[in-house]
Design brief:
The chain has 234 residues and is of the alpha+beta class. Helices cover 23% and strands 27% of the residues. The protein has three domains: 51 residues, RNA-binding S4 domain (Structural Genomics Hypothetical 15.5 Kd Protein In mrcA-pckA Intergenic Region, Chain A); 89 residues, 2-Layer Sandwich (Alpha-Beta Plaits); 76 residues, Alpha-Beta Plaits (2-Layer Sandwich). The structure holds uracil.
């Protein structure tokens, strides 16, 4: 990652502001003044600004990623499949917050902030997740929709009430507050409508928006605060 971007991501200043600070000779990389904002930072050398070290721990990063189908949501995969962490070039070690099935696309967070990850995945505070599901099994009737929203009996117990909207024929948006294995697929299957395609479109108040498949963007402090708020309301 370029030094200018690294400082901006560490919250030192805007991208432009960070480049200015570098050109002013206030930044040291590996103990030497570096005035080139394009210099590559790979985490192997100390970075300091005005003599204060910018440590990885002081840089809390949270990225929204649009995971494509076929990418696993673990940090590494013994089977050698592509992982979601490989989609974001970062000098910091990032890890995924929660999981999405390999066949599910859509919004997943990557962060180096363990405390935030805990808050967002802890069953006690579980932030709601919204999915778009394309369903098979013919016309989707009011009975199936009512069953999905009221709670469905699964092998590991009934599901909590969910918000369900029919968007078009065979397409629903469903917001759940639990994170059980393959939960949405199992719920839809249980009411006679197997899922043909599943995409996560929101985590709490954060929507995927126009993030393209395989793309990522860093969340603003305001967006991270809104996620924390959603968790503490949980
Ligand atoms: N529910 C599922 O069935 N799969 C996912 O990936 C997420 C929620």
């Amino acid at each position: 990652m370029r030094l200018g971007k690294y400082l901006a991501q560490a919250g030192i200043a805007s991208r432009r502001g960070s480049e200015e600070i570098i050109r002013e000779g206030r930044v040291m990389l590996g103990g030497k003044v570096c005035t080139d904002p394009a210099r590559d930072v790979d985490g192997s050398k100390r970075v300091s600004v005005d003599g204060s070290e910018i440590t990885p721990a002081s840089t809390k990063l949270v990225y929204a990623v649009n995971k494509p189908i076929g990418v696993v949501s673990t940090s590494d995969d013994p089977a050698g499949r592509p992982t979601v962490v490989e989609l974001v070039a970062s000098p910091e070690r990032l890890f995924p917050v929660g999981r999405l099935d390999i066949q599910t696309s859509g919004l997943i967070l990557l962060t180096n902030d363990g405390e935030l990850a805990n808050l967002l995945t802890h069953p006690r505070y579980e932030v709601s997740k919204t999915y778009r599901a394309r369903l098979g099994g013919g016309a989707l009737g009011a009975t199936a929709l009512r069953a999905l929203s009221g709670g469905v009996e699964l092998a590991d117990g009934p599901t909590l009430p969910a918000r369900v909207h029919k968007i078009a024929a065979g397409l629903i948006e469903i917001e759940v507050r639990e994170g059980r294995n393959h939960q949405v697929r199992r719920m839809c299957e249980a009411v006679g409508h197997p899922v043909n395609a599943l995409e996560r479109v929101a985590i709490g108040p954060l929507r995927i928006g126009r993030l393209h498949e395989g793309g990522h963007r860093r969340l603003s402090a305001k967006e991270v605060d809104a996620l924390r708020d959603a968790a503490s309301r949980g």
